[in-house]
Amino acid sequence: MAGKDRGPERGPIRESLRLLLPLLAAIALVVVAVGVVTTRTTRAWFESELHSRAVLAASSARQGVLSAYASGDSRQLTFLLDDIVHDDQVVAAALCRIDGTLVTRTPLFPGDGEFCDRSRISVANWRGTRTGTQSGVITPLDGGVPSHVSVTTFISALTVPVRLVLLQDFEPAIRRETLVQRWAMLVFGMLAVASSLLTVLSSRLTRGGLMRRLTVALRGESKWWHDGDAPLIDDVRALAQRSTAAAVEADRDGRWTRSRLRSVLNEHVREESLVILANREPYIHDSVPGGDVIVRHPASGLVTALEPVMRACSGVWIAHGSGTADRQSADANGRLLVPPGEESYRLRRVWMTDAEEQGYYYGFANEGLWPVCHQTYARPVFRRSDWDHYRTINERFADTVLQETTLDDPIVLVQDYHFALAPRMIRDRLPRATIITFWHIPWPNAERFSICPWREEIVDGLLGSSIVGFHTQAHCNHFLETVDSALEARIDRTDNAIIRQGGRTMVRPYPISVEWPLRWTEAVPDAAACRRQVFEELELRDDTILAVGVDRLDYTKGIEERIEAVERLLERRPTLIGRFVFVQLAAPSRSEIPQYRQLRDAVEASVERINGRFGTEGYSPVVFLRAHHEPERVFRFYRAADMCYVSSLHDGMNLVSKEFVAARDDERGVLVLSKFAGAAHELADALIVNPYDMEEASGAMERAAFMPPAEQAERMRAMRAVVAEHNVYRWAGRMLLDAAQLRARARRTLNLSGFPMHVSTE
Ligand code: ADQ
Fold first, then answer.
1. What confidence score (pLDDT) does residue 496 get?
2. Domain 523-726 bears CATH identifier 3.40.50.10260
3. 3-class DSSP string for 62-129
4. Integer angstrom CA distances of residue 228 from 82, 225, 567, 670
5. CATH for the stretch 267-509
6. SS3 263
7. Is pLDDT of 224 > 60?
8. Which of 174, 305, 581, 585 lies 20 to 30 Å from 107, alpha-carbon distance?
9. Are the CB atoms for 109 and 94 separated by under 8 Å?
10. The CATH number fitting domain 12-173, selected from 3.90.960.10, 3.30.450.20, 3.30.950.10, 3.40.1260.10
């Protein structure tokens, strides 16, 4: 498993090149050497051949030449020399006296006798005997065609010794030499290339075979490895485990980015095998008056976090089709490609009746589980009929997973408290799946959870997962404690794992976050421009101190308490009246549930009261914008504000706090953050408050209102570093790496027949 920090993985091509390059270098050396040796050898052959010809020609002419010379018959001599030159290799001939003067020559013989003096002929290496024939090659200084020269001394009792000098054409020899050299290099080159290819191929085949046999042996299925090899197999297995763990650790260092997440997925997960199961869909199609269809981004922390992950990874997102135009914008199976215009992953919509939605979503999930998990003093309501719908819808989503994957071992990311039963149902249908369930809200202590009438079924459902993830270690501990008290199971405290009925479920903290860089920060203008726009829209005085709150209208977010804290601030610091404005963006949420409607009424009443008490003509201390706002608008408010107050009474993480930090690239603005939000564990440089404590909360807002820019910058810089590092790609990447490690471990150590991701190694 290679990660970004360890450099690129050595692919098969690279590996072959590693073997081939030295081989090719060696081949090149061999070919050059062969070239040199061939040249020398063929040249020696040709010189020797020309020497023999010269000897032959001289001995044939010897008798005639000597008698003609002795009798002074110059015509006969000329005739004899012409006769020698008829041989098409000998181009010129001359007869010289021993003192180096010319007797006669054929027309092409060069000079006036300089070739009669052997010491004046520029031959590097003479061959032959001093008394017989001596020969060599003359290479002209101007690089012209070389010639072969031979000098034969005729000694006779009849006359004084004479010398026959022959010049032979060396060009054919050069031509043949070049030809032989080329052929030799070609043949050797081809042989060398063929042999190197064979070497690489055979090494790969041998290695492939070896790897296959090793893999089989590691799984314990080997017919090839002997008993004596067992310690070796154990060593290899241990080494592989260590290196996987080290690789996973290495991957955990360094900044997570969209591309790093994508490469982790490409390496460890087949793209089409990633399936997300979530109640909320990332794109909602709604009809508007006039017949048009608009696309909305829902106000949901879960969607905020998961959507960038899906954009990076592709796969399929299965969700409830909740928009009024959802059916008409999907195909007959409820499928469509999203995001609109970008189409990087598939959305599969699941339909449900109003009664089912009422029971499963509003009833059991949001009137039962939501208040049980949040300590906000809202009374949970549990109805049998809601539970039945909850089970039915979980079943339907589990069936949909089966329809949307072609693999028997997909990675399924089950999201949130709407699907506590689905992991077990998916496990029953796809025993080899890797199921990661992430619980986006807090998990309460065992005693509190025990009020749920179906706590055993809920816990058993979740234990169908390979991994159950929460935002914080405290939530993990509460879950382990709940399992311990609800079911018969063994808890491995050192590994935070639960072993039950042959299955093993890891419990891990994965603090969720936002993407970095955050898309919306690039879609809106800089802080000064945002401030101008917002001030203009709300008709604020230039010296206004602007605070914002951004939430779903939910009782866990402490919106009533927040407004009360603003009231207390204006009481304790009256100079802020007229200058301090708190803007609350509140997305309507779960308005089918009476508690949520009551909350809306209560918040509106509080706003009215405080505005009545401190407001004046043209001034309202609290601006309540109850609506769903598109992300660009939300981010304009983040950038325009002097502070953001997150006052959750209890919150799994809270992404608004991280979005505010991500938006403030101008390093200004103060975050006032509830200590009961998971985010408070990470954003220690915020002003951390108890939202129930009005003195503390209003005091923090007062401090924020007058905080010097340098301190704002210092705090914001520190928080931005945390959010940049702990971004949503890290959240997803760490979960997926843990899943990949589980899959690899299961493949290596177990002889898998049934439950690869869920088998206990105890
Ligand atoms: P939520 O309870 O939905 O999430 P949160 O994490 O704060 O809460 O995310 C809210 C998201 O909705 C943010 O992206 C925000 O910008 C957006 N939003 C809020 N008000 C809006 C408005 N009026 N108009 C438009 N958009 C608005 C749950 C858990 C959290 C956990 C997340 C993610 O309750 O604790 O952080 O899941 O795991």
1. 95
2. no
3. HHHHHHHHHHCCHHHHHHHHHHHHCCCCEEEEEEEECCCCEEEECCCCCCCCHHHCHHHCCECCCEEC
4. 89, 8, 80, 68
5. 3.40.50.2000
6. helix
7. no
8. 174
9. yes
10. 3.30.450.20
Query: With bands split at pLDDT 50, 70 and 90, how would you rate the model's confidence at 249?
Result: very low
Rounded to the nearest angstrom, the distance between the alpha carbon of 654 and the centre of ligand 1 is 7
Q: How far apart are CA 92 and CA 185, in angstroms?
A: 35
Q: How many CB atoms lie within 10 A of CB 759?
A: 18
Query: CA 32, CA 173: separation in Å to the nearest integer?
Result: 21
What residue has token string 């060593």?
235
- What are 333's two structure tokens? 């199976």
Question: What is the DSSP secondary structure assignment for residue 498, as one 8-state letter?
Answer: E
- Give CA–CA dist 406/433, Å, rounded: 12
Question: Which of 300, 436, 438, 644 gets mutated to test ligand 1 (max ligand atoms within 8 A of its CB)?
Answer: 300
Reply yes or no on whether the pLDDT at 601 is more than 60. yes
Q: Is 566 exposed, middle or buried (0-12, 13-18, 19+ CB in 10 A)?
A: buried
What pLDDT was estimated at residue 628?
93
- Ligand 1, closest atom to CA 512? 38
Model pLDDT for residues 336-366, shown as the tens digit of each residue: 999 998 888 999 999 999 999 999 999 999 9
Higher pLDDT, 539 or 163: 539
Q: What is the mean pLDDT of residues 218-244?
A: 49
- Per residue in 162-217, pLDDT tens? 889 888 888 877 787 788 778 877 877 787 777 777 766 765 655 545 545 554 55
Task: Give φ, ψ of 742 to 5 degrees.
Answer: -60, -45
Q: Residue 671, Cα to own-chain centre: how many angstroms?
A: 34
What is the 499 CA–ligand 1 centroid distance (Å)? Answer: 34
438, 470, 518, 552: residue to mutate for ligand 1 pocket, most atoms within 8 A of CB: 552
For residue 748, give both structure tokens.
């290596």
Closest Cα to atom 25, ligand 1: which residue?
629
Is there an atom of ligand 1 within 6 Å of 304 CB? yes
Is there a common fold for 12-173 and 523-726? no
Provide the angle, in degrees to the nearest 10, between the axes of the packed helices 655-663 and 709-725: 120
Domain ranges of the chain: 12-173, 267-509, 523-726
Please work out whether the CB of residue 586 comes within 6 Å of at least one atom of ligand 1: yes
Would the CB of 652 count as within 6 Å of ligand 1?
yes
Distance 302 CA to ligand 1 centre (A): 7
CA of 557 to the centre of ligand 1 (A): 10
Token pair for 538: 């709300």
Cβ–ligand 1 distance for 269 under 6 Å, the answer: no
How far is 689 from 696, CA to CA, in rounded Å? Answer: 6
pLDDT greater than 90 at residue 116: no
User: What DSSP string runs through 182-236?
Assistant: HHHHHHHHHHHHHHHHHHHHHHHHHHHHHHHHHHHHHTT--SSS-GGGHHHHHHH
